[in-house]
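Section 5.1 Outputs to date
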Amino acid sequence: MSQNNRYQMVAIAIFAACAFAVTAYGGPPLLCHPYEIGDAKSLPWGGGAFDRNKKYDTAELIPDTLALLGDQTPLLERMETVRRAAIYANSEPSRKCAELTKALDSRRGETLRPDAPKNTKVMRDFDYWLAAGAIAQFSYRDGAPANRRAAYDGAIKSLGDTPRTAEIEFALAVLSWDLQIAEHHGHVAAACDQTAEDSLLAANIRSRFADGAKSLKEIRENHAKKAR
């Protein structure tokens, strides 16, 4: 089978998974919903959720991904880079998913530079758990709920005493989106509490969690009720 045919088969499989879950969740949340990151740099991409750049040399996927996930990279941009990396990794004939998660996991144990931001360790932990959760969702039709729950629980545990910013609450909301737990709604409400209406984060919140609401205040109120 040719490489192009393999790409097509993978794309069809992912599309089927999205269609399968669209009624309840709009598709596997870590894969089917691109993050709006403005002009920020990420892996080469096309215009759709799974529209990979056919000219991209995936032999560079791992080093490119690690380079983009620098210590200063905001969480929202990290989430989109990890989403694209997971899709590229799963689309490879050689399947680089294990290589990707291994690289991200190894980096969690590296000694940090003295001048690294205080949240560097947490961000690296989130990179790993977001990738693990996304890769688990390639088997969305078959379930793999334990793996998806493990990604959420791992992210929660990695936080420790780290202050929960709006971006962190948003990431936790995405990780818990299809787990059917009350904590998911609490994360959405907490993210709304700390987010300006005209921000990129607000656009990402609205595109995922609005459910008919028009403002962050409405979204917050709706999800707060479900979190009780």
